[in-house]
Amino acid sequence: MNPDIKAECSVLPEQPGCYLMKDRQGTIIYVGKAKILKRRVSSYFNRAHDRKTAQLVRQIADFTFIITSSNIEALILEMNLIKKYRPKYNVLLKDSKTYPFIINHLLFML
To answer: Residue-wise pLDDT tens for the chain (110 aa)?
Structure first.
């Protein structure tokens, strides 16, 4: 693992939020959300993965994160960041360009 990334992982907060993985050119290649940022982001660099995730990890040169006040806020932010940046490693719904599960989940909570 890149020593700079390891150092960044060690100071991540134990709060919910979103993380944006970047390649060497600074292009956002993956957006994710976490209940606990420190645990989730560190997991990319501390264990074995399937082929797709291993390929993603090899391309990560840097990452940024955004802290949110709740997991639901992180979920909404993740959806909006994926729409905005269209990262190549995020799996998008092919049939409709919407997020029915998220919308249904939020409506249920209201």
So the answer is: 567 888 899 999 999 999 999 999 999 999 999 999 999 999 999 888 898 899 999 999 999 999 999 999 999 999 999 999 999 999 754 444 555 555 555 555 55
81: domain CATH number is 3.40.1440.10
Count of the separate structural domains present in the chain = 1
Residue 21: closest CA among 35, 32, 12: 32
In 10 A of CB 38, how many CB atoms? 16
3-state secondary structure 58-102: HHCCEEEEEECCCHHHHHHHHHHHHHHHCCCCCCCCCCCCCCHHH
Helix (H) or strand (E) run with residue 3 in it? helix 3-10
For residue 27, give its domain range: 3-109
**Residue 52's Cα: distance from chain center in Å?**
15
Q: Tokens at residue 72, please?
A: 């639901």
**In degrees rounded to 5, what are phi and psi of residue 29?**
-110, -15
